[in-house]
Amino acid sequence: MQTLPKSISEFLETPYSLSQEQIDFYQKNRYIKLKEVLNLETVIFFNDAITKQVNAMNQEQTALEDRTTYGKAFLQLFNLWLENNVVKELIFSKRIAKIASDLMEVNGVRLYHDQALFKEGGGGITPWHADQYYWPLETDKTVTAWMPLQATPLEMGPLEFSAGSHTIVEGRELEIGDESEEVIQKKLRVTDFKHVIEPFNVGEISFHSGWVFHRAGANVTDEMRKVMTIIYMDKDMILKNPENKNQIHDWNTWCPGAKIGEIINSPINPILYSN
């Protein structure tokens, strides 16, 4: 098992300064990309550690061409922090958790869950969708940190955003798939929301809220696009009555034992940062 170098451990505890302009940008658009959140040493180290853990957990046997649109989008592995104490150090980083808390303007955040999203060379698009369709959470005080583990040019399929689209209700009821890509894309075409497609530098991280619409292009390179994500919620988030089968699944899987109408405080939803 790898051990975390002291320099990286200390770096992950070091605060990242946000300006009021950056917080205001996030509040308006419900996404933001921040440069140099991680340094090169940290990215290289966790690229290796997370890749090894993904390889150990991955059970995908189906050939890429035989999968559904969703299956072609990425290899998806959840809650690596429960399996690997080194990866846990990244997931529990106060540096990243404080950014999430500050952007949402809350008094602290707890973990919803983490997931690795590895888009294989030749992997397909990630269709337009809003994450919070899947989540039995009372408010929109949620944010996902999307952390590429390498520089991610357009050819690898970086995350794309429809800035400010959290105000759109149409399309929220759709699972990620061919229908969500078609319906949401059609809706976004007739709005004034800016479609943001940009590469990611090494160490650059994006943060997006649960209801903002986003997608990713295909990976037309022959390299794996490796991304680690952390989903944060307000530390005082209430579990709502689930509205679809996916929210029932998420309740049982990511908030086990939580009660409707009460703060989600299960053993796998720890507070990661508090003011």
TrEMBL record:
Pfam families: PhyH. Its cofactor is Fe(2+). It comes from the Bacteria. InterPro entries: Phytyl_CoA_dOase-like. This is Phytanoyl-CoA dioxygenase. It comes from Flavobacterium cheonanense.
